[in-house]
Design goal:
Number of helices: 8
């Protein structure tokens, strides 16, 4: 009789332990989000977030007016002829004229500028020689009178047939190109 009770207890315990077992999931989950991740939808509506004393329905929001994207500085001159003239007269290069900056400017000039403006700044780049763009003036053209500010402004916004290079060059790289263009201008004289 005692052996029947022992067999019944062991059988009952085994039945109890296996009845809660699921082969697709482990028995104990110490970090359940590792096994069953919570999926978050991008731009989902979030209800009940307290905001300014009322419950809001928050989604992806437009940035606050006047906010500035990280890593970007506003450029205070407009893309107009007046903005060009103001930049030409007022804007000065904030980075020091070092050999490293000139070398970086030369490399960037070779990538972005030389194809039109030529390696010497004489307006005889590959595209000018192939007559894809005509009338690219020399940097030392007295009618242009280029300055640090005018070069930077044209890189920023573009002018005439030249498009903006603001997406290709960050602020420091633009000023490095400006230094190299002024060096080419001095060598053309």
């Amino acid at each position: 009789m005692k052996s029947l009770i022992k067999i019944g207890v062991v059988f009952g315990a085994a039945l109890l332990m296996t009845s809660c077992f699921n082969k697709s999931q482990p028995n104990y989950q110490y970090f359940p989000n590792m096994y069953e991740p919570v999926g978050y939808e991008a731009y989902q509506e979030v209800n009940g977030v307290p905001f300014g004393g009322f419950e809001s329905k928050m989604e992806a929001q437009i940035p606050a007016e006047g906010s500035i994207k990280r890593g970007w500085l506003p450029y205070e001159y407009d893309n107009t002829n007046e903005g060009y003239e103001a930049a030409k007269a007022e804007l000065l290069n904030p980075i020091q004229p070092t050999e490293e900056n000139l070398a970086a400017g030369k490399e960037l000039y070779g990538i972005y500028c030389a194809v039109c403006h030529g390696n010497k700044g004489d307006g005889q780049g590959t595209l000018a020689k192939r007559e894809k763009f005509l009338g690219i003036p020399k940097y030392n053209d007295p009618a242009r009178g280029i300055t640090e500010g005018s070069i930077y402004h044209v890189i920023m916004y573009g002018k005439n047939n030249m498009g903006s290079h603001a997406n290709q060059l960050d602020i420091e790289e633009r000023w490095q190109v400006v230094q190299y263009v002024l060096k080419l201008k001095a060598e053309l004289k």
